[in-house]
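Ticket opened by: R.M.
Priority: normal
Category: complex prediction / small molecule

The reporter submitted a protein together with zinc ion and asked that the result be attached to this ticket for the collaborator who will pick it up next week. Submitted input follows.
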Amino acid sequence: MAKLVDIHIHLVDEDYKSLFGYLKAYLKSSDTILVSVSVDLETSIENVKLAAEFPGKVVPFVGVHPQMADRADIDGFLDYLVKVKDVAVGVGEIGLDRRLGSKQELSEEQKKVFRVQMEVAEKLGKPVSLHTRGTLKEIFESLPSYRLKNVLLHWFAGNEDDLKVAVDRGYYASFGPAMVCSKNKRRLVASMPQEYILTETDGPVRFGGCFRGRMALPTFLPSVLFALVSVLNMPYDDVLVLIYRNSERYLGVKL
Ligand SMILES: [Zn+2]
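Result attached by the on-call engineer:
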């Protein structure tokens, strides 16, 4: 039976701490599959633990986020990844980040941390969940030098031409609450082949627009799915099955 899938959420983020009891109760009672990504060694360890507590519901990704790159213990992380390679389903959230604007110089440390994680994902045959804020061009340039199992451009923020490059190369793109409020985002999704669409919340990020600054929760997922129902002009159940199958193909595991 197909289930809702959040392909990118930060379940062990600090901002969820006060809601952790609620989230655990949600995990116990719901059938939703949550792919929980990491940002450093500590969150990687916590995600692997959480996945052991909720098998089949929490899918752990381990990784060092570009915003953490400059102060990360990358060697400690790589040792840990090798240790948990049989339980960590993928590597993420990794990537490059230009949050200070288009002129920001990317540090050598950030590029190195990205590169070594891409190499290890390639070696272990894991899918990657990529952060590409302001760096889609660099990411597109570097990707062909790796032979990766599957690539997700999480929170896809490029234009139609970027999306064409992505799907021509077989990359997945995920869309979340921003698509619910934005007509432009929905138009973009409508232009892409259905087999590369995935759904996410990126919780606990806060969303403006129609979500009025609320913190994203897994309970936002039905809204994301209903936005897709209108974009794809398909019945809800068919969209549910589509995203579920796309998620399985991207992750390379049976959900
Ligand atoms: Zn994220």
